[in-house]
């Protein structure tokens, strides 16, 4: 390998400390070169599962992994992901407290005897649920 593999942009793991058990099997200990089907190469983070595009050449697979958008304000990717997950948990808690069947909005509607629409609440609930769904789909987290 002529070019050194960069750390994982998602979890911050560095180079793998071991070797996979066979083609397409990661060592689950960091970033490493993998050989997939039909001789195609790719780089995979065995810690979080992120992987590069595949290529017939090792050098191109490394370049695919190393060429990515850097976020200058993020110095610790793992801490950033942890903070993002904290935001997701907080958003889920707010949705539950306000929009759930036993939440604030349901209590006010039940107490008033009028099920009038709260358009702003309905819109923000829809946007919050869409953002949570997208984040969880992108990270493999479950809601």
Q: Short description, anyone?
A:
The protein has helices at residues 58-66, 77-99, 104-112, 119-139, and strands spanning 31-35, 41-45.
Plain-language structure description:
By secondary structure, this protein is mainly alpha-helical. Helices cover 43% and strands 7% of the residues. The protein has helices at residues 58-66, 77-99, 104-112, 119-139; strands at 31-35, 41-45. Strands 1-2 form a two-stranded antiparallel sheet.
Strand-pairing-aware structural class:
mainly alpha
Cα(first) to Cα(last) distance is 40 Å
Instruction: Tell me the overall shape.
Output: elongated
Q: Percentage of helical residues?
A: 40-55%
Give a topology summary:
Layout: E1 31-35, E2 41-45, H1 58-66, H2 77-99, H3 104-112, H4 119-139
Antiparallel strand pairs: 1-2
Helix pairs in contact: 2-4
Primary descriptors:
single chain; two-stranded antiparallel sheet; 4 helices; 143 residues
């Amino acid at each position: 390998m002529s070019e050194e593999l960069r750390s994982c942009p998602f979890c911050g793991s560095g180079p793998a400390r071991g070797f996979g058990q066979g083609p397409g099997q990661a060592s689950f200990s960091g970033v490493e070169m993998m050989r997939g089907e039909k001789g195609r190469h790719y780089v995979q983070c065995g810690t979080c599962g992120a992987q590069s595009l595949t290529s017939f050449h090792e050098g191109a697979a490394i370049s695919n992994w190393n060429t990515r958008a850097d976020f200058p304000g993020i110095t610790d990717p793992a801490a950033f992901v942890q903070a993002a997950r904290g935001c997701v948990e907080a958003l889920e808690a707010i949705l539950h407290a306000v929009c759930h069947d036993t939440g604030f909005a349901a209590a006010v509607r039940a107490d008033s005897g009028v099920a009038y629409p709260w358009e702003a609440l309905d819109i923000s609930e829809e946007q919050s649920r869409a953002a949570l769904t997208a984040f969880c789909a992108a990270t493999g987290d479950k809601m």
